[in-house]
Amino acid sequence: MTHQVHHAKQFGQSAQARPASVGQAGFTLIELMIVVAIVGILASVAIPAYSDYTVRAKVTEAVTAAGAIKTSVADYYYANGELPTSNAEAGIGEPASFASGVISEISIEPGTSEGVNAGTISVEFNPDLATDIETENKLVFTPYESNGGISWSCSVSKRGGDFPSKYAPAVCRDAGGV
Q1: What is the DSSP string of 62-90?
Q2: Domain extents for the chain?
Q3: Which CB contacts under 8 angstroms, 24+ apart, belong to 28-35?
Q4: R_g over Cα of the chain
């Protein structure tokens, strides 16, 4: 008795030779279709979520840029006892000097319009930002004098546009805008 036959009998196997590829050689068509369907479902959920995320990240860039301007407005207030009425008074560049891939300009409002305080910071978005944010839409940071200091509120301005609140930071979401 050969070694292979002896080994096969010892483990209860038949001594007959079997072809090497008896099992399945690959995936069936239905299995591949199921995998493609699952990937399609995941992509249909992930792509819109990622798109929203990228727009929110760009809006956050605008909020960060406004943070430096808020500091300049506060410095002017503490030095002069009143809020600035222009970029020049606050000691910052012209509105268009803040232009970037996200921002078209940042300006300090003079406070001459009804319901707009002096020192209000208006951040306008670049028209090339996204189709979801129109050029008329702005983030507005309004200073309020309280207890010898300044507190800020943030809102979405919908002057002629419809800024989707899902893109605004949580503290800036409001129903009517400025």
Answers
A1: HHHHHHHHHHHHHHHHHHHSS--SSHHHH
A2: 63-172
A3: none
A4: 32
User: Alpha-carbon distance 33 to 25, whole Å?
Assistant: 17
Write down the pLDDT at residue 123. 87
Predicted local confidence at residue 2, as pLDDT? 56
Q: Are 72 and 90 in contact (CB under 8 A)?
A: yes
- Segment-wise mean pLDDT, segments of 10 residues, the chain, 178 residues: 54 55 75 94 88 82 87 91 90 85 86 80 76 70 86 74 71 54
CATH placement of domain 63-172: 3.30.700.10
* Chain center to CA of 141: 19
